[in-house]
Design brief:
Shape: elongated
Largest sheet: 5 strands, parallel
Strand order of the largest sheet: 3-2-1-4-5
Radius of gyration: 25 Å
Order of helices and strands: EHEHEHHEHEHEEEEEHEEHHHEEHH
Number of helices: 12
CATH superfamily of the largest domain: Argininosuccinate synthetase, chain A, domain 2
CATH class of the largest domain: Alpha Beta
Structural class: alpha/beta
Length: 404
């Protein structure tokens, strides 16, 4: 075990990371710096300061990163229309690069020898945190307690907490039976009854959304304004990326938007069942594809769709800081120069419905050509005959061969 003098811990203030804090001090004989980020999880992060102070931590970082998260991570990802395995909007995945980046930056600022996180040895997050850290600081030392200690069950964790006088219930009230992760893009649920893929999620599990059955009987209309692929106004009022996420989560949640129940393939090899609430993301994906349908060239749009699964896989697997993701991002961003205009969305009982789209400057939709009425010579239908015969040539040659 190498000598560690100081380590930066991604600290939530909860039981697990509080145990990790004490374990790091005891195991490595080191000083611990805590880092707590507000990325829109909807819970107070400031209490983590008092908890860290009570445990003797001298250097405590509490940061509001909601706008950074939305602007620099969520919005670029949605320019790509990224969705993993056809269903997952990457809510947990996209938060990890930001946390890894700040862990490394704080380590540099404080002269720490290592960083540490509370991800288990079974999940994707350990990969995402550490790939990000190594990409930004190649010689960084990473301590992953769940891969090192012998506290392998909830009982042993509780016994450790009791032995070291670590408060067990920082938050009063009934503890959720689920393992949850939240940020301004989504909230996820794993464990409990969800470990049986046949079991339906319990109604009281969901926190952000009403059930579609209980959503209002009257649809809600919203209008999103786009500039270079990003939402810049909601119902005509200018909004920041962070404000977009907050407001769409509220509006979407009120209309039963964004629930998903998924069995996904983790990067470490196992299948995992999780449930997600992603109201804002569900609306954003539908609306962004709508404005692109009007403003992107056909081959550009099709190429983006071909590359999207690869992009989504890179985000899911933790390669946000890789050269291939950055290369793809440059290409995707360049495609967004003409993605300007407005999309009108109807939200109704869990459904996101495109009710209209327009782009005065960049629309490629030509009504004179597309019309079923008289196009006044804008399109010569006779041209289609040669087009069809040229494209059928190889099919006709192959058919003749078969007939022979």
């Amino acid at each position: 075990m190498s000598k560690i003098n100081k380590v930066v811990l991604a600290y939530s203030g909860g039981l697990d990371t509080s145990i990790i804090l004490k374990w790091l001090e005891d195991t490595y004989g080191c000083e611990v710096v805590t880092f707590t980020a507000d990325i829109g999880q909807g819970e107070e992060v400031e209490p983590a300061r008092a908890k860290a102070q009570a445990m003797g931590v001298k250097e405590i970082y509490i940061e509001d990163l909601r706008e950074d998260f939305a602007r620099d991570y969520v919005f670029p990802m949605f320019r790509a229309n990224a969705i993993y395995e056809g269903e997952y909007l990457l809510g947990t995945s996209i938060a990890r690069p930001l946390i890894a980046k700040r862990l490394v930056e704080i380590a540099n600022e404080t002269g720490a020898d290592a960083i540490s996180h509370g991800a288990t040895g079974k999940g994707n997050d350990q990969v995402r945190f550490e790939l990000g850290a190594y990409a930004l600081k190649p010689d960084v030392k990473v301590i992953a307690p769940w891969r090192e200690w012998d506290l392998s069950s909830r009982e042993t964790l509780m016994a450790y907490a009791e032995k070291h006088n670590i408060p067990v219930d920082f938050n009063k009230g009934k503890k959720s039976p689920y393992s949850m992760d939240a940020n301004s893009l989504h909230i996820s649920y794993e464990g409990g009854v969800l470990e049986d893929p046949w079991a339906e999620p319990e109604d009281d599990m969901w926190r952000w959304t009403v059930s579609p059955e209980q959503a209002p009987d009257t649809p809600t209309y919203i209008e999103l304004t786009y500039a270079k692929g990003d939402i810049v106004a909601l119902d005509g009022k200018a909004v920041t990326p962070g404000q977009v996420m907050e407001q769409l989560n509220r509006i979407g949640g009120d209309n039963g938007i964004g629930r998903d129940d998924i069995v996904e393939n983790r990067y470490v090899g196992m299948k995992s069942r999780g449930c997600y609430e992603t109201p804002a993301g569900t609306i954003m994906l539908k609306a962004h594809r709508a404005i692109e349908s009007l403003t992107l060239d056909r081959e550009v749009a099709h190429l983006k769709d071909e590359l999207m699964p690869r992009y989504a896989e890179l985000v899911y697997n933790g390669y946000w800081w890789s050269p291939e993701r950055e290369m793809l991002q440059q290409m995707i961003d360049s495609s967004q120069d003409t993605v300007n205009g407005k999309v009108r969305i109807k939200l109704y009982k869990g459904n996101v419905i495109v009710a209209g789209r327009m782009s005065e400057a960049d629309s490629l939709f030509d009504e004179r050509i597309a019309t079923f009425e008289d196009d006044e010579g804008a399109y010569d239908q006779k041209d289609a005959e040669g087009f069809i015969k040229l494209n059928a040539l190889r099919l006709r040659i192959a058919a003749r061969k078969r007939q022979q």
